[in-house]
User: Fold this.
Amino acid sequence: MVYLGPLGPLPPMASRSGCVHEPPLDPRWEWVESPAYGGPAEYIRGACRHVAPVEVRATVTDEVVAHLCPDCDLQLPAEWKPAARR
Assistant:
């Protein structure tokens, strides 16, 4: 399998199955398998899962006014709750 990063294919690393050929997929992102005709499978990084958002609090009232995802820089609403893990 070939894994694509923002700058192209990623180098081989130890994998989740212990095989030396596949790097582990980063759990912060959704991954989409792209069929490679006649070659190894390729994975393309999809949407962020927002696994570790940071609370943004008002200075005066100390209430949560938003959440910020440090992985994708998306501002999430104050009412945001993490989705159930699959």
Summary: The beta strands are 2-5, 8-9, 29-34, 42-48, 54-57, 64-68, 75-77. Confidence is low (pLDDT under 50) at residues 12-20. DSSP finds no helices and seven strands in the chain.
